[in-house]
Each structure stands twice: as C-alpha cells, then as structure tokens.
Amino acid sequence: MWLFTRYGFYSVACADKPDGTIDPATLMIRSRRRAHLENLKKRFPSLAEANVVRLRGRDYRWRLFVAKDHWVEVISELAQEQEWSNFKNEAARYLGKSGSSYTHALHKVWGTMNDLQTTEPEPTTAL
C-alpha cells in the first residue's frame, strides 16, 4: 500500500519472518526520507518506541517495523483527522518550507495519475 499523508509518503508491506515467509502480523512502514518516519513517530504514540532502521541498497532506505494492530490504529486516526479539501495544499501548509521537495513530488504524482484518467476512454453510457 502506498500512503501519501501530510506527514510524508509511506510504502507499507508485510515484513518477512526469519525463514523468509511473510509475517502478516508485522508490517514494514517504509519511506524514502527518514524525516517522514520521524514525523509519523512524533504524531502517533503507538509508534514512538519503534526504531527507524536504515537499510543501504534497498528501494526504500528507511523503515519502521510495527505490529499490524498498531498500524490499524494509525490509519484510523489519519482518517479521523481529515479536515481539508485539497491534500497538496494541506501538505504544503503542514510541512512548510522544509517539505517543499515532498509537495513538489505530490504535484508530479497528481499529474501522472491525471494522465491515467485522461487516457481512459469515456464510457458510452452515463454512470
């Protein structure tokens, strides 16, 4: 799952067990920026004890490993704090100047997804 929030961008996937199989009870909250994980830890007490792990040579360098039930609480709170009508503007407001590269990336993602919409043929009947 990819998750874009006013705190940062995260890619969430199940962690691996020592034997290499998937551990559905433990998640990796992965990020391209350490600050994004630190923002999440500051906001959500259930994540405060999780250590930010740096893995060189991985597609997502920074990670938190958390129990799935803790992540479910975080996602619920993220939904509850929704109070804006324009996400890109909220991210820019919340992160300020220090988040300018992130908000720039958000605009690029918006453009890419807009292209996906505009290349889809219009349905022949109204929905």
* SSE succession: EEEHEEHHH
Secondary structure tally, helices:
4
Total number of domains: 2
How far apart lie the N and C ends?
28 Å
Percent helix, as a range, is 40-55%
**Averaging pLDDT over every residue, what do you get?**
94
> What's the overall geometry?
globular
Output the structural class. alpha+beta
Count of DSSP E strands?
A: 5
| Rg of Cα set | 17 Å
Numbering strands along the chain, what is their spatial order in the largest sheet? 1-2-3-5-4
What does this structure look like?
With 127 residues, the protein is α+β, with helices and mostly antiparallel strands. The protein folds into two domains: 2-82, no CATH class; 85-120. The chain contains four helices and five strands. A five-stranded antiparallel β-sheet has the order 1-2-3-5-4. Helix 3 (87-95) packs antiparallel against helix 4. The model has no long low-confidence stretch (mean pLDDT 94).
Question: Could you outline the blueprint of secondary structure elements for this entry?
Answer:
Layout: E1 2-5, E2 8-16, E3 22-31, H1 34-43, E4 53-54, E5 62-67, H2 68-80, H3 87-95, H4 100-118
Antiparallel strand pairs: 1-2, 2-3, 3-5, 4-5
Helix pairs in contact: 3-4
